Amino acid sequence: MPHLEVKGLHKQFAGKPPTTAIDQLEFSIEEGELVVLLGPSGCGKTTTLRCLAGLETADAGQISLGGRTWFDSSQRIALPPEKRNIGMVFQSYALWPHMTVRKNIGYPLRSRRKKGPEAAQWIEEAAALVNVEALLDRYPAQLSGGQQQRVSLARSLVSRPDMILFDEPLSNLDAKLRDDVRAQLHELHGRLGFTAVFVTHDQSEALALADRVAVMRAGRFEQIGDPFEVFERPATEYVADFLGLSNRLPAERVDGGVRVAGAEVVGDVLAPTDLGDFVLRIRPEDLHAAPTRADLRGLTTLPATVVDAVYGGRHVDLYLSVAELRIHARVDGSSVEWARSLTAGRGVVVGFDPENAKAYGTAEGSRLLDGRRLATARNGA
Ligand SMILES: Nc1ncnc2c1ncn2[C@@H]1O[C@H](COP(=O)(O)OP(=O)(O)OP(=O)(O)O)[C@@H](O)[C@H]1O
User: Fold this and answer.
1) Cα-Cα-Cα-Cα dihedral of 172, 176, 178, 179, to 10°?
2) What b-and-e string marks burial along 113-135, b requiring 16 or more CB atoms within 10 Å of the CB?
3) How large is the average pLDDT for residues 260-266?
4) Are 38 and 46 a contacting pair, CB within 8 Å?
5) Sheet with 163-167: strands ordered across
6) Does residue 234 have a cis bond before it (omega within 30 degrees)?
7) What is the predicted ipTM?
8) What percent of the chain has pLDDT over 90?
9) What pTM, to 2 d.p., does this model score?
10) Any residues with CB less than 8 A from the CB of 193 and at least 6 apart, and which?
């Protein structure tokens, strides 16, 4: 039996026009699973999380955990947050400034009427999990951002909740700290196996932490799957774009071959053979560049012109034009001296492995096309 079960969840906010923040959402989560809700601003992640927490009341639907009903619009059941035994971690650490770390961590135990030596022990244990034992008698103002977030993590764990809800908990930390706390969170989840829903708009965070990623769009799940599946097989162009396949190359079929971005392609493209026009999506990291076609043997190639080349240490970002289109290739900067010497106006050849170019139909919302290899060899190549 799934641990958390959400059925037909719907939430509209009044306004002109009204906003549908959650649109007939259905999903379930197994015990111990960490599910990430990923998507751009306004897609409904936070509202979904707040409905799970009981901080927001949905217009319709059901939520249950471990067979216990938390919310059921038809039966007018809506348990308040304190009756749901959940832990919460927010972007703003939401610590009480006038309380010590010890009191802050122990705060959720109060409403559960847990006191005395047992409460003290649970606090010590939670603090130890995130390495803040030494800070228990300090006040939040005496802590760094990373330490404050670890304290709020300890507070979310202290009452041994059935589920933990995370609302962009890492986005206030600077890049290095974010990586540290993320690694710690990953390790903690592996060790404790808590059930969690984690909201973020950061794809690398989602891939790193999730057992399953749900990519949200306009209050619905556009795709839900394990990180590998979502990363390697984005179901729609929307998901592809959000997961870094930022190059969009329109493709058209011409007498047995294919033109991509209005240019002659040499090599293979994967797309169903019974299709007319389609679109290829590809990551900058999956595009290679070289002076000549012969340097990119085995890859599908097209001609391009350098618009700009930006040095980035280990990589060089090449902004290129292919006919009327702009594309972005991120090429290795440490080994390819040539890439660092490129200047605007230079002609280059761009190549990609056909497996890395995902094909979609041109109609809005088209699903990933499972392609057969479509030979487009031209010019004797
Ligand atoms: N209290 C509210 N009143 C009116 N509209 C709201 C309210 N809260 C959210 N919305 C709207 O509902 C939609 C979903 O908002 P939500 O905050 O869930 O998105 P989000 O994906 O979490 O975005 P972000 O990443 O910016 O937090 C948005 O269009 C938002 O403007």
Assistant:
1) 170
2) ebeeeebeebbbebbebbebeeb
3) 84
4) no
5) 86-89, 163-167, 196-200, 34-38, 212-217, 220-225
6) no
7) 0.94
8) 58
9) 0.90
10) 32
Report long-range pairs for 13-21 (Cβ below 8 Å, ≥24 apart).
20/218, 20/219, 21/47, 21/219
Q: Are 235 and 359 spatial neighbours (Cβ–Cβ below 8 Å)?
A: no
220: closest CA among 365, 3, 29?
365
- Give residues (CB < 6 A) around ligand 1: 13, 15, 19, 21, 39, 41-47, 201
Distance in angstroms (rounded) separating the CA atoms of residues 13 and 163: 26
CA–CA separation, 181 vs 134, rounded Å?
18
Return the best residue to mutate from 13, 22, 38, 217 for the ligand 1 pocket (most ligand atoms within 8 A of CB).
13
Would you state the structure tokens that stand for residue 16, as one six-digit string?
């002109």
Q: Is the dihedral of CA 198, 201, 206, 211 positive or negative?
A: positive
Distance CA 319, CA 304 (A): 10
